[in-house]
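Forwarding the complex inputs:
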Amino acid sequence: MAEIHVESVRKTFGKVKAVWDVDLTVHDREFVVLLGPSGCGKTTLLRCIAGLEQVDQGRVFIGQRDVTDLPPRRRQIAMVFQNYAVFPHLTVFENVAFGLRMQHRPKDEIKKRVQSAAELLHIENLLDRYPSQLSGGQRQRVAVARAIAVDSLVLLMDEPLSNLDALLRLEMRAELKRLLREIEATTLYVTHDQVEALSLGDRIAVMRDGQILQYDTPLNVYDKPADLFIGGFIGNPPMNFLDGEVRTEDGRLIVRTGGGEIYPPPEASAVLSRLKEPSVLVGIRAENIETLSAPAEDALQATVLVVEPLGSHNLITMQLGPEQIKVNTDADFQAQPGQTIWLRLNTDKIRWIDKASGRALDYDVSPQS
Amino acid sequence: MSDKAKRILGSIPLHVVIIGLCILWLLPTFGLLITSLRPFQDINETGWWTAFLSRRDPEAADRPRFTLNNYVAALVGYRGRKTYAEACLGENPDPDCAGTGLMSPQGMGRAFINSLLVTIPATILPVLFAAFAAYAFSWLEFRGRQLLFAILVGLQVVPLQMTLIPIYRVYTKFGLNGTFLGVWLFHTGFGLPYAIYLLRNFIGSLPRDVFESAYLDGASPWTAFFRLALPLATPAIASLTIFQFLWVWNDLLVALVFLGGTTPVLTYQISNMVTSLGAGWHLLTAAAFISMVVPLIVFFSMQRFFVRGILAGSVKG
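Prediction (whole assembly, two chains):
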């Protein structure tokens, strides 16, 4: 296994900047997820690393070796494709053995490796079948088995679960996580599904318009999104963003928002006080809002609009001043549309976002590698 | 009325039409077959359908109704009025036995072998080259790929007849007239544009992922061609092979120009069976059937490849 290192890579298709000055390092044995909406360049970046696309500029390293100018077959990479890409005219065994045969391994070694890869994926009883006799989930297992059967330095996965139905996807997700922990592969995984990214990755690189916006652990990406876009893209429901106005009263910094006032914690106050403009966006997740049935000093008054019971919790949409806000409550929380409720925002969890740039105020702008 | 009965009734018109068309197409061929099996006196006197009726002419009663003599005569190139066995295999062969025999240039036997010698390479060569070219046009990146492909496809508008004389002159220079090589090259050249076009469309429609995944697994373009493109394109290659084979097998013009009478092929020989006065029907019908044997074998042995389905299951489906 080895490290993947990408240095200021650019790739354009005509006038479209698919990947623009991307730096990325995936440590040895790390599982990194490239996450972004469709068209953000995540698959192009993966294909550049695989060598299926030639980069316009920049270098690609795999385990210290500069592979930028090598064809895919010399990069020692295994890849799982979204459409499985199994060979329809070969049996499952021959499919899994294909890469090994290309390396001219001895027969008994091929057999042993295919067998063990098949066991890891629980397809050992399907080895004699042809792909057309398999279900979608089984074909995807074959594709993964083929990727792990060879001694590749890194494993690339391009939305491997997106063609499976919801239930199967959930099952395969957990299994992939187990498997990749087991084989300790350096993995780069592309997806547009934020739940997949949060549940699988050691780190997540969020991409938009060909650039990496944030590269951090799932928890940090979720709790401390680097900007407006990430907060809105990750999480269900997306982060709430309220207009806020910074002012100082009696030597204390307060933020007027949602028809009330909130009091930022000291560290945030320090950052907010340095703002040139007095306006700021208050980003807060639905679960970091407490609902109160009576007024309190630091609570904002809101009106219930919609109540959606989701089993484990209720999702409530409320009118807060001129804006709407989504709040998670306990499943047994009773509320009627039109009812008045008081909301207390957990100020420690608030993301303060610069209105002009859309970036979080405390966040170091350059993505770390 | 039950659904099933309705369905059966509903399909009756369709079946009537199909069966009607089949009869329309097969009847002349069937007549040809019966004719080829009748003694030539019968052929000259009555229609083929009377072979199944009672005979009116008492003189004909002692002749067999069906015989293979026409086939024997056609194969060895005997054109007399007796049977080949009576005329030529006795103590004193008739004068018109001269030049007959299984390998005689007058007979269908020799022409049959010539036809095979022309057709097999003239089928394999263009199909093979077209497969290479189609793979390159589909999956290899090189400059001018689109333009080159457009030119190749455009070449199909050049009528073969227009090039006969220029190519004949070139062949004369290189001594290729009257050689098999000359005919092979000619058929390869004129078969390639269409063959490349057909195969490129098929190979180009194979899923890209499959090739990319093979490249990542360590396959060179060469390996990917032999291990993936060829087996996956079997249905297209099979149908192309059949078409090219039939085209060359049934071709008269090219063979006439470049091989002529010295190395006659089947089509040439068949056209020689009928004299300008219209005699020799019995030979013509038998010869036609001899020439049909191979196409029939080729067609029936490869027709299952027409059913496309080998690709099922390569990607999500």
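Chain B has 14 helices and no strands.
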